[in-house]
Automatic annotation (TrEMBL):
This is mRNA export factor GLE1. GO terms for molecular function: inositol hexakisphosphate binding; phospholipid binding; translation initiation factor binding. Coiled coil: none annotated. One of its GO terms (cellular component) is nuclear pore cytoplasmic filaments.
């Protein structure tokens, strides 16, 4: 609900603005430690990303309320946005987009981590679970680039708007598709922000879809 989102947003914004905030039954403030603000920036960005691979992966529509709060905080506190992208790119290199290559001297376990797989007790996570997490992350990213906090007063441009989504899509189509991963991410990305991209780019967007259908998808064969 909008009132709940406003309460969450205001609490985060107040904390980042140096105001005292109630948490866990006590009052906290980033001014209590010289590195307090940097620490909260880092952990907040990390939390937004983890919500993508956990909450959004399990509940697809959760991308939108999380994204609208994240977008609004990003607009007021740009450092959070920088750190969000850093955490996102580490968890999901395909959000760059980037397909890490296996280099000499890199162990297979380390390479799997580079690809975004979770490794526990030297065992790689199942492919279905991996794709589900990547789907949640790219859905959150696709939601953020098209949403703005609706209760703000700023009239400036979106801090990471649809132009970044257009660039991501174009770069993805300039890379050879990767089995399973590319198809999953393209579907989720277009399902979430395809309509917004169509409204902004119109004929260019339809040309991009034709390219996907007639040239890109056949490369999977």
């Amino acid at each position: 609900a909008g009132s709940q989102l406003r309460e969450i947003f205001d609490k985060i914004n107040n904390l980042l603005s140096g105001k005292p905030v109630q948490s866990g039954g006590r009052t906290v403030s980033v001014t209590q430690h010289p590195q307090g603000l940097d620490f909260v920036y880092y952990k907040l960005a990390e939390k937004f990303v983890s919500q993508g691979e956990e909450e959004v992966a399990s509940h697809r529509d959760a991308a939108f309320p999380i994204a609208v709060v994240a977008s609004g905080i990003w607009e007021l506190h740009p450092r959070v946005g920088d750190l969000f992208l850093a955490h996102l790119h580490k968890k999901c290199p395909y959000s760059v987009p980037f397909y890490p290559a296996l280099k000499d001297g890199t162990s297979m376990e380390e390479y799997q981590r580079m690809l975004g797989y979770q490794i526990k007790d030297s065992k790689m996570e199942e492919q279905d679970h991996f794709l589900k997490r990547m789907s949640g992350l790219i859905r959150l990213y696709a939601a953020i680039i098209q949403l703005r906090w609706p209760y703000g007063n700023k009239q400036g441009t979106h801090p990471h708007g649809l132009n970044y989504g257009w660039r991501w899509l174009a770069q993805m189509l300039n890379m050879e598709p990767l089995a399973d991963v590319t198809a999953t991410l393209l579907f989720d990305f277009l399902e979430v922000c395809g309509n917004a991209l169509m409204k902004q780019y119109q004929a260019q967007f339809w040309k991009m879809l034709l390219l996907i259908r007639e040239d890109y998808i056949p490369r999977y064969d």
